[in-house]
Amino acid sequence: MPPLKLLEVCAFNIQSCFVAEKAGAGRIELCVDPLQGGTTPSYGLIQYVLEKISIPAYPMIRPRGGNFLYDADELAIMKKDILTCRAMGCPGIATGIQLPNGRIDIENLKQIVAWAHPMTVTCHKAFDSTPDAFEALEDVIAAGCSRILTSGLHKTAIEGAEVLKKLVAQAGDRIIIMPGGGVRSSNISQLVNETGAQEYHSSGLVARATDFVANEGEVKLMVDAIKN
After folding, report:
1. In whole angstroms, what is the distance from residue 108 CA to residue 76 CA?
2. Which of 67, 87, 91, 228 sits most deeply, having the most CB atoms within 10 A of its CB?
3. What confidence tens digit (pLDDT) does each residue in 39-71 have?
4. Are the C-beta atoms of residues 134 and 170 closer than 8 Å to each other?
5. What whole-number distance in Å separates Cα of residue 96 and Cα of residue 112?
6. Is 93 a domain residue?
7. CATH code at position 183
8. Euclidean distance between CA atoms 72 and 76, whole angstroms
9. Dist. CA 154–CA 122, nearest whole Å
10. 167 contact partners, CB below 8 Å, separation of at least 6
11. Helices (H), 61-160
12. Residues of 207-220 as b/e, b for ≥16 C-beta within 10 angstroms?
């Protein structure tokens, strides 16, 4: 049997976590600060989600907004966050790190994967800031990550669908390619058909929700779409 398709919901608050679970999502990417594209959530939020939510939750490890170039102090902070997530029992994390030339920082990403073990590591959309998607794919695989969240180096996954399809083919069974970026109920079926990916990522937000809480109906529509 082919693997079951899965929707990951990017949750910026506990309310979105409850929505994701109720609507049938398979996983949560847990973060805060949506206006910065997501940063590391508080330990209190992580612990509460682990206590109250039954589906896996992957905290984002990102100490600040902006670029993905981190100095030694920021890496030390990230290490503390990663080790804390591991001690708390998180099943995985989402993170990413680049070199000044835009390429994936393989050595530091390898170190992050080692700190995280046995948690699995998703390389988040730092991937989309790299100059070459197919080179970056091999770099992330070499670093030991389990998954890449990407819009195919485009603003949205729909715009990057052709690249995403090629990434899925190149990745094979070595790593999961998870399209994200503007994924909604109105286009997720198209993405399934055009990319062949097994996992998809969306905030589940509708109509520019100012509270940044996922919409249950929207999430359920996406879950249903990828199962059909």
Report:
1. 11
2. 91
3. 999 999 999 999 999 999 999 999 999 999 999
4. yes
5. 9
6. yes
7. 3.20.20.380
8. 6
9. 19
10. 133, 134, 137, 148, 150, 152, 177
11. 72-88, 106-116, 133-143
12. eebeebbbbbebbb
pTM for this prediction: 0.96
Helix residue ranges, H only, 155-211: 161-171, 188-195
Name the domain count of the chain: 1
Two tokens at 218? 């929207």
Residue 32 belongs to a domain: yes
Write out pLDDT tens, residues 171-195: 999 999 999 999 999 999 999 999 9
Pairing type for strands 199-202 and 176-179 reads unpaired
Q: Residues 167, 198: contact at Cβ < 8 Å? A: no
- Beta strand 147-150 pairing with 120-123: parallel
Q: Which residue, 164, 169, 167, 171, is CA-closest to 191?
A: 164
